[in-house]
Amino acid sequence: TTDSRVGAFYFRQDGGIVLYAPSFELIATFDQVNDLRYPAYIKFDGAKVAPKSQYQVNKFIGGTASAPGLVDIKMFRTGEMYLIRAEAKAESTGDATADINALRTLRINNYMNTAFADKQALIDAVYAERFKELAFEGHRFFDLKRRNLSVTRIPADAANASGAVTLTSAQAQYSFPLPALEISVNKNTKQNPNY
After folding, report:
1. Taking Cα atoms as reference points, which of 135, 18, 98, 6 lies closest to residue 60?
2. Pairing state of beta strands 42-44 and 165-167?
């Protein structure tokens, strides 16, 4: 599309095809009744029929009648700061419970504070919250990459494939190629593997 409005990529008020739709994996992670992010981020439209997704990204719809989808991208916000600090604490001291509970209290109606069994359970909770809180903002791939985790699409999200699709850290597509100009101006720079 030549439309420069960020919301137009996710939600077409004119009924056109959207370029991105929420994954079923993401949809399943939300408490659809109590999590305030769910209706703010995802819209279900039962009138849509295949090949159009019935789920649309609702996060960036904003704008006006004459300029739908015209919204400011939030570069940094409080929820992300809680999660950055929680991740750092979880990895170092294992003491990020307060940050996770504070964020969830603000986002989930009737939330009851959670105690985590161990450091790994806390780290998993941080990444689960990052998946939801930062959805559609371009963080997920880098969150997985930072932990050397595979990118996996469940069968429902891989419509043109037969079964689940997994991108492992050993595959070329997991890393970006370095631009040829960068390599040519610095002879010490080596291209990423598989390129």
Report:
1. 6
2. unpaired
The amino acid present at 99, given as its one-letter code, is D
pLDDT at 185 over 60: yes
- Which residue type does 81 have? M
User: Hunting for tokens 């010490």 — which residue is that?
Assistant: 188
* Neighbouring C-beta atoms of residue 185, cutoff 10 Å: 9
Distance in angstroms (rounded) separating the CA atoms of residues 24 and 46: 15
pTM of the predicted model as reported, rounded to 2 decimal places: 0.83
Residues in the chain: 195
Handedness of CA 186, 187, 190, 191 (dihedral sign): positive
Helices (H), the chain: 6-10, 24-29, 37-41, 78-92, 97-107, 119-133, 140-146, 180-185
Q: Is the pLDDT of residue 7 over 60?
A: no
**Token pair of 64, please?**
């006006």
